[in-house]
């Protein structure tokens, strides 16, 4: 793929994500109120939240994948090195996990849980299973895989011959940090450092193993769980 096509891919992802994020900025408060309203059926609330989540982290890379006829497997959704990628990613998240625990922010481990999850549980076992699978896809798979695809495209557009650095890794790490709430006291700085180590390390592991399952695992069972 030539540089022009890679540039177009990046623009498609960026414009799609920012367009949906712009919509969220305009209707976010009403959407949150809607999603939290337990008097409304849980399904439209879940689908509304999932649609917004997919639009921000998933729609752009899906359009690019279809447009360029590049299946998701070409971005590292393969068996080879999967365990190595997951194991390496877990190690990179250890400082962040320790920070959350030692700073007293850890309450309980809740993988695949969002604001509507309690109402899914009340709706019965079938609703819990189906709803949790939807959460796994949009808040776990696509959010984590989004980082892998974007970093991959940036690295192909701006290649660097270095094992521990790439522009895709750096840009996506900073992107993740900017979308993460920040504060600048001592604990905030420690959180910033541990978050940087987690995301940067996760993407370096992806780059070295060429396997994206570590990124998916991180967002499915670590990042959104603690």
List keywords for this structure.
single chain, 9 helices, 0% strand, mainly alpha, 73% helix, 226 residues
The main β sheet shows up as: none
Mean pLDDT: 95
Strand fraction equals: under 5%
Outline? globular
Question: Can you put this structure into words, describing what you see?
Answer:
- By secondary structure, this protein is an all-alpha fold.
- It has nine helices and no strands.
- The chain is globular and about 55 Å long.
- The termini are far apart.
- The relative contact order is 0.16.
- The mean pLDDT is 95.
Short note summarizing the structure:
The chain is built from 9 helices and no strands.
Helix-strand blueprint:
Layout: H1 3-36, H2 42-56, H3 59-67, H4 82-102, H5 117-122, H6 125-157, H7 167-178, H8 186-209, H9 213-223
Helix pairs in contact: 1-2, 1-3, 1-6, 2-6, 4-8, 4-9, 6-7, 6-9, 7-8, 8-9
